[in-house]
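User: Can you predict the 3D structure for this chain?
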Amino acid sequence: MSQLEELEACGADSRLYLKPVGLVDSPQWNTDKNQRLNNSLTWFSQIEYLIVEAGCPNRRGLVNITQWPEWAHALPEPLAQRAQELFANLTRQHPALKCGDRTIRFDQPHVMGILNITPDSFSDGGMHQDDPEKAAEAGLAMAVAGSSILDIGGESTRPGANPVWEGDEIKRVVPVVERLAHCGAVLSVDTRKAAVMEAAIAAGAHLINDVSALLHDKRSLEVAGVSGLPVVLMHAPSSGKDPHKGEGYGNIVTDTLDWLEQRVAEVVAAGFERDKIIIDPGLGFGKSLTDNLALMNNIAMFHALGQPLLIGASRKRMIGALSREAPVDQRLGGSIAFAHHAIQQGAQIVRVHDVPETVQAMQIWRGMRDAGVTAPR
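Assistant: Here is the predicted structure, written as structure tokens:
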């Protein structure tokens, strides 16, 4: 049985997933044999497909870009229609985000610097607590080092962390946002509470980063929508007090992707502009080492959802697990390795603690990509 004959036997409940592979260093040498991934500096020459159907073994295969139109057209419905939609998302040009005086373009990757104003964050808890001036100085240093976005948070969401009253969270975050409002970087408020979002927006925040994807607080969706600001929707197994609490996964990659696809659809249906939604698979949130590595190895699959992609692996527990239990303050190499991998797979934003080092790694990657793209035929 041929590949297409096998696919023609797929049932109506089959689910199709696409992953761009066969990345190309110098795409201009074979322009008819590769496609640009979104409007990034990454090109792909093949598509890996996965078809999941209840009661049947998963079907996998590779399709060259030159064969894609014929292959996709020959699929039975509704797979053919979904194939068209997913491929359109893979090659979609993401419009730039206007964030205050700063414009974030997605034809190059960006570094989001982590600025925690908390006593108990897993990596930098207590460094900037009760000292807005010191915190603002740290944020400014990140901006000077090349961070396009500063992610300012007043509540730790590490495993086992205690919830923070919204009033205390506001007292931690707002003074720092006010001091950084004109630093030149986009200011992101890392919160799952509507009141904190409102206060941070009034103080000058440009972006909302919610680990609960606007589900934890019933008012968050309305507040975010009315603000008109871009929002990061992150996957976590729970929107309750403990975002790490879950019941496990069947397939971590497809489960996470399906959840994000559904959540984006819900937020858009509520009136939010699709072009202002960024997605994050939520590395480390209720996920095992195996889960996290599976997600990292399949980052490119998430581009098929049609939204800019944020990856946050900096200093996380999985780095220690892979490097002789290296403590949090000795995970720089692993953090850069994960950030570099995410950028190579087309992630538009990497969220990190170590900004200067990550920016340098990104600049080296960018230099190599520029050299490849401009190399003579």
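The chain is about 35% helix and 20% strand. The CA atoms of residues 253 and 295 lie 6 Å apart.
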